Amino acid sequence: MYYWDDDDLVKQKLAAEFEKYTMSQKEAAEFLSIHASAMNNLIIEKRLIPLYTYNATSSRKMNIFFKQDVVRYKETLDIIRANRKNRENT
Fold this sequence. Notes:
By secondary structure, the protein is α+β, with helices and mostly antiparallel strands. Helix content is about 65%, strand content about 10%. It has a three-stranded antiparallel β-sheet. β2 (about 50-55) and β3 (about 60-65) form a beta hairpin. The longest helix is centred in the last third of the chain and has 23 residues, at about 65-90. The chain is elongated and about 65 Å long. The relative contact order is 0.13.
């Protein structure tokens, strides 16, 4: 086995794990059915906390979220949306 073969295998395993456990800011926004720009408000209000932020000092940050955190927040968001809908119907 060559050195590069090991690196390729490691890359594949890492990519699979990242896909399984993380979401980009865009993916999280789509999953939550909100605009990508609204994600910044959720981060500022600490409703969703990024697992990691690339280019943290730049204006072009890229936030990575733990997928389970986003799923939990969606459950809360769905309840809030349902309550608003119920109020409008009464």
